[in-house]
Amino acid sequence: MAAIPAGDAARAPLAVLRTDQTVATARARLEAAAVPGAPVTDRDGSVRGSVEVATLEAADPALTVGEVAIDGTTIKLDK
Q1: What's the CA gap between 53 and 56, in Å, rounded?
Q2: Handedness of CA 21, 64, 40, 24 (dihedral sign)
Q3: How far is residue 46's CA from residue 42's CA, in Å, rounded to a whole number?
Q4: pLDDT tens, residue by residue, 3-48
Q5: What was the pLDDT predicted at 6?
Q6: Residue 79: pLDDT above 80?
Q7: How far apart are CA 38 and CA 36, in angstroms?
Q8: What pLDDT digit, counting tens, does each position of 56-73 carry?
Q9: Do the beta carbons of residue 77 and residue 42 sit within 8 Å?
């Protein structure tokens, strides 16, 4: 297998959701970006995990993304 520079392998996500967005807003963002899921950040910018469209489709549209099941662990950048 050939080596791939990290800068070539990594790319910015097409959509990033926030824990305080409604499920309805989050679904609309994912559908507009035509992606099956996205990372989720809190208001401080810490990554809280990710969520898939299927999870949002099964949730009450009035809930916030933070109130539905988010896969992952918290990741925070050193400052």
Answers
A1: 5
A2: negative
A3: 6
A4: 666 666 666 778 999 999 999 999 999 999 999 999 999 999 888 8
A5: 65
A6: no
A7: 7
A8: 999 999 999 999 978 765
A9: no
Place of tokens 């790319």: 11
Residues 67, 72, 76: CA angle, nearest 5 degrees = 95
Sheet holding 17-18, edge to edge: 17-18, 37-41, 47-52
Residue 19 token pair: 């824990």
Count other Cβ atoms within 10 Å, centred on residue 46: 13
Q: How far apart are CA 10 and CA 16, in angstroms?
A: 15
As given in the structure block, the two tokens for residue 57 are 């489709």
Distances (CA, A) of 27 to 40, 49, 66, 76: 13, 16, 13, 25
Confidence (pTM): 0.75
**Structure confidence at residue 31 (pLDDT):** 95
How many beta carbons lie within 10 A of that of residue 12, not counting itself?
5
